[in-house]
Amino acid sequence: MPYVNLKVVGSLTREQKKQIAREFSDTLLRVAGKPKDATYLVIDEVDGANWAQGEKFFK
């Protein structure tokens, strides 16, 4: 059972999330032979104030 945890800065629309889930599960099916209904995806939308690269925060 694949488990994918995706973290993004900011928010995504429901349609964007659906497309991401579809494409991740399509890829795992095609590349690893994992059935779509066995793939779990969690999308964490992180506020830019909580995400830094080096000393620079994104918000």
Order of helices and strands: EHEEE
Give the mean pLDDT. 96
Figure out the total of helices.
1
Oligomer: single chain
- Radius of gyration from the CA trace? 14 Å
The level of helicity is: 25-40%
Biggest sheet strand order reads 1-2
- Assign the CATH topology: Macrophage Migration Inhibitory Factor
Summarize, please:
By secondary structure, the protein is an alpha+beta fold. Helix content is 32%, strand content 31%. The protein has a two-stranded parallel ribbon with strand order 1-2.
Describe it:
By secondary structure, the protein is α+β, with helices and mostly antiparallel strands. It contains one helix and four strands. The strands form two sheets. It has a two-stranded parallel ribbon with strand order 1-2. It starts with a strand and ends with a strand. The mean pLDDT is 96.
Topology:
Elements: E1 3-9, H1 14-32, E2 40-46, E3 52-53, E4 56-57
Parallel strand pairs: 1-2
Antiparallel strand pairs: 3-4
Attribute tags:
59 residues, alpha+beta, Macrophage Migration Inhibitory Factor, two-stranded parallel sheet, two-stranded antiparallel ribbon, 1 helix, 4 strands, elongated
